[in-house]
Specification:
6-stranded antiparallel beta sheet; D-amino Acid Aminotransferase, Chain A, domain 1; globular; 3 domains; Rossmann fold; alpha+beta
């Protein structure tokens, strides 16, 4: 198993939780292992703490036994970065391991999590992609945020390093001076922006937040909806793997399913204009990310369309979470394994 397989040996890099167990998307790892075995390859899950000079201790799944076993493996033909925690990925041990992979000429993807403001700054330099960006600022000073709020009247406050809609708030200017703050489970009214800033400035500055104009989204049956786009690299290009629709329900702050959003099939709202927008942005975003941060083999995009028909790119995620659409998730496994074979030079 460790040295004689005909196909590639793929290392899936993860991280340990506080109790020492390996974190990550277990169902994804198992699905990849099953598909790889059908292609004469094999995968194992590991953390950089378990890497030695010549071998790595990791865990591989045995489908016929339906359990994981611990083994020592040679360095893999390719590393798939699925580290689930930003602080783990940024620590010295992980960065040193990335350097070792480069020294050994072992390909890996994806290189890092994406900071929301870094993404905005990157896409802003792209002549085509910048036309789809909501107005955005990094929250650093009280007066900058106040000026932005007065100009936009309604804005989103988003943590620069988070996903799944966590920590998002809507801030509205009511009349000439009052301020309303709305979160998934938090609502508050303030007599003035000064009162709001006194209460929230520490959180906004310590955690690093961005402020983004609120887009009045197009609606379906009375509720806003967004596009969730999954993309993978293939033969040097970036292709659409699948598109889903996420719609808000009880609250219209976010469409994320963990926050109460619901899933709709893309075919329900599919138009030629939607298709053109999605097909146009995927290759451009993929190339921009890889040129700036290092090779991206996959990513997902949160995008939307306004009531007036203007399209917007909201976020790009380097570690896409599972799609609830079974057909998209199955195609993801196929695309990833195809990419594994291409990058490790085991492609037929």
């Amino acid at each position: 198993m460790k040295t004689n397989q005909a196909g590639p040996l793929i290392g899936i890099m993860s991280a340990r939780t506080s109790n020492g167990s390996i974190a990550g998307n277990g169902p994804l790892f198992i699905a990849l292992q099953k598909k790889l075995i059908s292609l004469d390859g094999i995968s194992f899950v590991f953390t950089p703490e378990d890497a030695d000079t010549d071998f790595i201790t990791g865990y591989t799944f045995l489908p016929d036994k339906n359990y994981w076993i611990k083994e020592s493996f040679r360095y893999p033909d390719l590393v798939y970065n699925r580290v689930p925690f930003r602080n783990s990925e940024q620590n010295d041990q992980y960065q040193t391991f990335f350097s070792i992979l480069k020294e050994k000429n072992i390909p890996f993807f994806n290189p890092c999590f994406i900071d929301k403001f870094e993404l905005f700054e990157l896409l802003k330099t792209h002549p085509f992609l910048q036309t789809f960006l909501p107005q955005t600022i990094l929250i650093q000073k009280k007066m900058d945020l106040l000026t932005f709020l007065k100009r936009q009247r309604s804005i989103y406050l988003k943590p620069a390093q988070s996903s799944k809609g966590k920590g998002i708030f809507r801030l509205k200017l009511i009349g000439s001076s009052k301020v309303q703050l709305e979160g998934i489970q938090h609502h508050a009214n303030y007599q003035s922006f000064n009162h709001f800033w006194e209460k929230w400035s520490e959180k906004l500055l310590e955690q690093t937040y961005i402020a983004q104009e609120e887009i009045l989204s197009a609606k379906y049956e009375g509720n806003r909806f967004d596009f969730r786009i999954l993309a993978h690299a293939e033969d040097g290009e970036y292709m659409i793997t699948g598109v889903g629709i996420r719609q808000s329900q009880q609250q219209n702050l976010t469409t994320h399913i963990p926050s109460g959003g619901r899933l709709l099939p893309y075919e329900l709202l599919k138009t030629a204009e939607h298709d053109y927008f999605i097909q146009a942005i995927v290759p451009s975003i993929g190339k921009a990310l890889s040129d700036r941060f290092g090779y991206f083999g996959e990513f997902s995009i949160d995008a939307g369309v306004s009531k007036t028909g203007q399209y917007y790119i909201y976020e790009v995620n380097s570690k896409p979470m599972s799609f609830d659409e079974l057909e998209i998730e199955e195609k993801k496994i196929e695309q990833l394994c195809r990419l594994f074979l291409q990058l490790s030079n085991f492609q037929n």
